[in-house]
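Please fill in the sequence for the structure shown.

STRUCTURE ENCODING:
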């Protein structure tokens, strides 16, 4: 069965459908060696290229999801010309598959970052129309009053449009150590920080603690990941209108040496975290 090229590329984790449409319009996508145009469809037996590089479909239909505790200082790009650490450096390599980040966190933001091998799941969870909640723990420098809280609830005009928190809860502390938990329904760039800054206060710490129905595990150390089991993966998919797919642990198929290496990497990161 043939499908539109942008949908196929998005499902393979190359980018969002909108990004792929812009790639096609720019002549960056080829099908069987010929430049594609918007509206073209591709079948499983045809070859796809983006920027001259062949795009291969995963060898498996498994839907896998990792929850990663991103530390401050890591970036969410696959490669960085400045040589900074990226979140992808910490993930296990699975032959024939690639991890797709579900949203991003800026370099100074820590906390829950989800990865999946299923491009459709990633795109659904990131798309504004699905209104998936993102919850953050925020430490604020500055005095916060009810007028500010109400304005951020109702909506504040930022340079890229109206933004608001759907929920704001005090979480203890005072003065330079006042904590709040806030919820947004979009993944706009630095949205949480900009909303608070619009009220004349500063965010000194920002950590994502929930994405949709997935909560940060308090036992998950910074710089380490955990694998969501089939029940959790199915629940996440169903929450955005997708059907269930086969699941298999990322550890299945790894030889003993690879398993020991992954375990040792996590142990070393845990030790480093405790020393800080």
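FILLED IN BY: designer on duty
SEQUENCE:
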């Amino acid at each position: 069965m043939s499908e539109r090229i942008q949908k196929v590329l998005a499902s393979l984790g190359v980018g969002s459908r909108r990004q792929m449409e812009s790639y096609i319009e720019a002549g960056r996508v080829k099908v069987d060696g010929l430049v594609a145009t918007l509206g073209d469809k591709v079948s499983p037996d045809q070859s796809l290229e983006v920027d001259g590089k062949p795009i291969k479909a995963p060898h498996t239909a498994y839907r896998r999801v990792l929850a990663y505790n991103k530390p401050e200082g890591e970036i969410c790009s696959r490669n960085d010309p400045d040589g900074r650490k990226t979140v992808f450096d910490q993930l296990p390599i699975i032959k024939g598959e690639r991890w797709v980040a579900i949203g991003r966190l800026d370099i100074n933001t820590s906390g829950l970052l989800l990865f999946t091998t299923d491009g459709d799941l990633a795109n659904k969870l990131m798309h504004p129309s699905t209104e998936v909640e993102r919850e953050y723990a925020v430490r604020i420098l500055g005095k916060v009053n009810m007028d500010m809280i109400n304005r951020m609830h109702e909506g504040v005009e930022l340079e890229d449009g109206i933004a608001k928190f759907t929920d704001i809860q005090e979480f203890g502390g005072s003065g330079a150590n006042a904590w709040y938990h806030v919820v947004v329904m979009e993944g706009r760039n630095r949205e949480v920080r900009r909303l608070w800054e619009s009220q004349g206060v500063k965010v000194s710490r920002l950590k994502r603690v929930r994405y949709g129905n997935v909560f940060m595990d308090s036992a998950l150390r910074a710089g380490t990941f955990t694998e969501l089991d089939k029940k959790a993966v199915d629940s996440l998919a169903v929450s955005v209108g997708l059907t269930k797919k086969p699941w298999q642990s990322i550890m299945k198929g790894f030889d003993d040496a690879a398993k020991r290496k992954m375990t040792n990497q996590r142990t070393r990161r845990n030790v480093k975290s405790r020393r800080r």
